[in-house]
Each structure stands twice: as structure tokens, then as C-alpha cells.
From TrEMBL:
SUPFAM superfamilies: P-loop containing nucleoside triphosphate hydrolases (SSF52540). Belongs to the ABC transporter superfamily. Keywords: ATP-binding, Nucleotide-binding, Transport. GO terms for biological process: quaternary ammonium group transport. This is ABC transporter ATP-binding protein. Residues 2-235 form the ABC transporter domain. GO terms for molecular function: ATP binding; ATP hydrolysis activity.
């Protein structure tokens, strides 16, 4: 569904993404991980052209993203990011209805469609009339997902969408999104710092570093990976935490 061919992006003369080629199949759930500054966000934003690449090409369903009108491209791609950016002066319903409104969908269907989208992200319908300041962080993030899904995108681009949440909400929302991904037949790309989250949610994990793909494997195979030191270090953190927790559980004092 998405294809990157020799994609390169520089900032201030320094390559951030260098000659990256990869293909992502329809229905895949792919996590992009890597240390801070590895180029994860740059690669994600290049898809919906929030970032313009210097060279190479990115296609969605065989169409070059630079040949698509921006509005059509953004309609196909739901975008969710940390801290979500809900408009504070708009109610939840108005925030969710932003894209359908731009698409000229008649307002008389709004209440029903907003209620359905809230239900999808497991929020009660009464929240429709609240304002963002009256929501918890987890609720706001769910509204962000509902807003992205309102355009009925086939591709979801997510940049640390669970990053600002407490661990319990983070885990709940991650699982809820994974279920939505299945149910709605979405293609999902998730940028995360959290290797454990990537291993538990995604079907395929791409590890970026120094502008390149360091590893590109399904979770089980990545766990057994031996190779690039940076990749191993990220996996070792998860393994070490699991081992220490196991040891703690077994200790008698
Ligand atoms: N608009 C910009 N102008 C200049 N440099 C930028 C710009 N955007 C990103 N960079 C630099 O490019 C590099 C990659 O940034 P990017 O945000 O893609 O990394 P990342 O892997 O998503 O990092 P993080 O995990 O910290 O969000 C960083 O060194 C960053 O400082």
C-alpha cells in the first residue's frame, strides 16, 4: 500500500533519512522505533507531506504522494499525535466533525455519526458537548483518534499517540486501537520510543538509526535478534525489565 523508494531528507545539510526503501502491505500494523532523532517522525510526516522529502519517492496505492492534491492525501491518512491538538474553543462533536465538515457532509447526520465514532473509541455519547479542557488526557486522546477516524481513512499515521498518558490508560488505549485496526481493516503506522509497546502492538517493527533501517522484523524474530548494538540495546532494556520483574516475583522477601 505504501512504498518508499530511496527516500532522503536533510536538515541544515545533515541527512536525517538517507536512501530508505521499504514497502508496507495493506492491513499491516507497523511500528517505527529508534532513539531520539533517528528520523521516525520525519519518515511518518513525509507520507502525508507534513515534511517534503529531498529525493526519492513515496507512493500510496501506486500513486506518488506529490502528485495527489493535499486535501485528498490528508483525507486518506488519519493522523494522530501526542498532545493531539484539539481546538479548545470547539466542543468534542465540533472537533470530531472538522473533516466531515470540510468534506461538505450535511450537518443533519452529525449527532449520529459523532455518537458512533465516540462509541468506536469507547467514550460515552454525553462527551460530545464537552470542551477539550473538560476531558482527561486519555479521553482527549481518544477524541483525537475519533477525529482521525471521522474521515474514514484507510491509513492511520500515529506519532507517539499514547506518549502523554499514564501507563494503565496507555496500555488500554493501545489495545483498543489494535482491536479497531483489525475491525476496520486499517493500515497502521505507529511511531514510538517504547520498544515494549512496539513488540506488543505491531506485526512488524522497523528500527531506525543514523538515517537507515537497522532492523525490520516481526516481534518474535526481533526478540531473538543479534546484530546492530543499538537494536540489541533497545531489546535488552525490555528483556532486562521482564527478567527483573520475574526475579522479583520469585523472591521471597
Ligand atoms: N524542521 C526541522 N528543522 C531542522 N531539523 C529538524 C527538523 N525536524 C527534525 N529535525 C532534526 O532531524 C532529526 C530527526 O528528527 P525526527 O523528529 O524525525 O526524529 P525522531 O526519531 O522522530 O525523534 P524523537 O523520537 O525525538 O521524536 C533530529 O536531529 C531533529 O533535530
Amino acid at each position: 500500500m505504501i512504498s518508499f523508494s530511496q527516500v532522503t531528507k536533510h536538515y541544515a545539510g545533515r541527512p536525517v533519512v538517507e536512501g530508505i526503501s521499504l514497502s508496507i502491505a495493506r492491513g499491516a500494523f507497523v511500528a517505527l522505533v529508534g532513539q531520539s532523532g533517528a528520523g521516525k517522525t520525519t519518515l511518518l510526516k513525509a507520507i502525508n507531506r507534513l515534511v517534503e522529502i529531498d529525493s526519492g519517492a513515496i507512493t500510496i496505492d501506486g500513486e506518488d504522494v506529490t502528485a495527489l492534491p493535499l486535501a485528498a492525501l490528508r483525507r486518506r491518512t488519519g493522523y494522530v499525535f501526542q498532545g493531539i491538538g484539539l481546538f479548545p474553543h470547539m466542543s468534542v462533536a465540533e472537533n470530531i466533525w472538522l473533516v466531515p465538515r470540510l468534506q461538505g457532509v450535511p450537518i443533519d447526520g452529525r449527532a449520529e455519526r459523532v455518537a458512533r465514532l465516540l462509541e468506536l473509541v469507547a467514550l460515552p455519547p454525553v462527551l460530545a458537548d464537552r470542551y477539550p479542557a473538560q476531558l482527561s488526557g486519555g479521553q482527549a486522546q481518544r477524541v483525537g483518534f475519533a477525529r482521525a477516524l471521522a474521515a474514514e481513512p484507510s491509513l492511520m499515521l500515529m506519532d507517539e499517540p499514547f506518549g502523554a498518558l499514564d501507563p494503565v490508560t496507555r496500555s488500554e488505549l493501545g489495545r483498543a486501537y489494535r482491536a479497531l485496526h483489525e475491525r476496520m481493516g486499517l493500515t497502521s503506522l505507529l511511531v514510538t520510543h517504547d520498544m515494549a509497546e512496539a513488540l506488543l502492538l505491531a506485526d512488524r517493527i522497523i528500527v531506525l538509526g543514523e538515517g537507515h533501517i537497522l532492523a525490520d522484523l516481526p516481534p518474535r524474530e526481533l526478540l531473538a535478534y543479534r546484530g546492530h548494538a543499538n537494536v540489541q540495546a533497545m531489546i535488552d532494556v525490555v528483556r532486562d525489565q521482564t527478567d527483573r520483574l520475574d526475579a522479583l516475583g520469585r523472591s521471597d522477601g
